Amino acid sequence: MYKLVACDLDGTLLTPEHRLGVFTQSVLGRLRARGIELLLASGRHYRDIRTYSAQLGGHGCLISSNGAAVHDRQGRLVHCQPLEPECAAALIADPDFADVHTNVYCAEEWLVARPEPYLLQYHQDSGFAYRETDLGALDPTQVLKVFFYGEHGRLAE
C-alpha cells in the first residue's frame, strides 16, 4: 500500500486553464480517504500552491519554488534554500536578459521590474500576484528562484 503520492501541478494535475479538474479532485480525494498523504511539488511559489492544497483538503506538505522551500502541513516553513547570492545577483543584473521579463521569487513574494499581465492568468484561483520593484536593489541572499518570460526563440538562445 502506498503511503504518499507526490504530484507536480502544471502539466500534471492542473487543466490547461490552470485549475484542478473535478475528476482529479475526485481521484485525489479517494486516495486521501484511504489514508494516503498527498504532497504537492511545484515550481510555483508557496503562496500560490497553497490554494490548490486547500482545494484538496489541505492535508499535505508543500514543496515550492523548484524545491527551494518546503512547508509542513500547518504551513510552517521547514526548509529554505535560497540561490547562491552571487548567482542570483548575476541572473538579475545580466544585460543579456534585459529584453526578457525577469521574475524573482523570495520567501513571501514574487517580484518583477515591470508588469507582464499575461503571467497573472496562471494564478487566477490563488490571486497570487507580483509586486513591481527595482530588482537591482534586491537583497540577493533572499532569492529562491529567478525565471524568465519571453519569446521562445529568444529564451532558447
Summary tags:
four-stranded mixed β-sheet, 5 helices, single chain, alpha/beta, 157 residues
Topology pattern, helix = H, strand = E: EHHEHEEEHEEEEH
Briefly note the structural class of the backbone: alpha/beta
| Arithmetic mean of pLDDT | 93
Ranges where pLDDT stays below 50 over 5 or more residues in a row are: none
Distance between the termini: 46 Å
Strands, count: 9
Helix content: 25-40%
- How would a textbook summarize the main sheet? 5 strands, mixed
Radius of gyration: 17 Å
Q: What percentage of amino acids are in beta strands?
A: 15-25%
In the sheet with the most strands, the strands line up as 1-2-3-4-5
Give the overall shape. Answer: globular
Number of separate helices: 5
Summarize the structure.
This protein has 157 residues and is an alpha/beta fold.
Description:
The chain has 157 residues and is an alpha/beta fold. The chain has five helices and nine strands. The protein has a five-stranded mixed beta sheet. The longest helix has 12 residues, at 22-33.
Which helices and strands appear, and what pairs or packs with what?
Blueprint: E1 4-7, H1 9-13, H2 22-33, E2 37-41, H3 46-55, E3 62-64, E4 69-71, E5 77-80, H4 85-93, E6 101-106, E7 110-112, E8 131-132, E9 143-149, H5 152-156
Parallel strand pairs: 1-2, 2-3, 7-8
Antiparallel strand pairs: 3-4, 4-5, 6-7, 6-9
